[in-house]
Amino acid sequence: MLAFAASAMASNQTTQSVSYSVSAINEIGASGDPAALSVTTCAAGSDPAEVTNALTTYSFSTNGTNKKITAALNSNVASGLTLKINMAAPPSGVSAGDVTLTTDAANAVTSIDTEAASAKTITYKFSATMAAGVISSTSKTVTLTLTDG
């Protein structure tokens, strides 16, 4: 009786198909809240001087092109008050300079292309006219959004 063994094709290599993808990445963060901006004095005969805070920073990562960062308040400041933001430009972007904050999203940084940037300075500027009167401590939420430009 003869026995036949099934022969298998053997090889010293094999192949695999590997699938991959990269999703759109648009992440932004801030280092924390700035200290309170308090108008406390002025020179006789003039409105109070603007106060500033440049102690917070923002960072972002995007693999997209033609992006921008907008800034908006959750509610407008009272009449006679002005709150501005100035965001330092990353290498690929352009800062809009001082931007008056309102509930409408305003461009703060534009022309951003694929980049990861960190510790870029945020400067807040706050001013009041005499017509604003006395304002007790109030907080506003500033929303920074990394979006298509």
Description:
By secondary structure, the chain is an all-beta fold. The protein has one domain: Immunoglobulin-like (Sandwich). Helices cover 0% and strands 42% of the residues. The chain is built from no helices and nine strands. The chain has strands at 26-30, 51-62, 67-73, 81-87, 94-95, 99-100, 106-112, 115-128, 142-148. The protein has a five-stranded antiparallel sheet with strand order 1-2-8-4-6, with no helix packed on it. The protein is elongated and about 95 Å long. The protein starts with 25 loop residues before the first strand and ends with a strand.
Note the topology.
Layout: E1 26-30, E2 51-62, E3 67-73, E4 81-87, E5 94-95, E6 99-100, E7 106-112, E8 115-128, E9 142-148
Antiparallel strand pairs: 1-2, 2-8, 3-7, 3-9, 4-6, 4-8, 5-7
Key features of this structure:
149 residues, Immunoglobulin-like, four-stranded antiparallel beta sheet, mainly beta
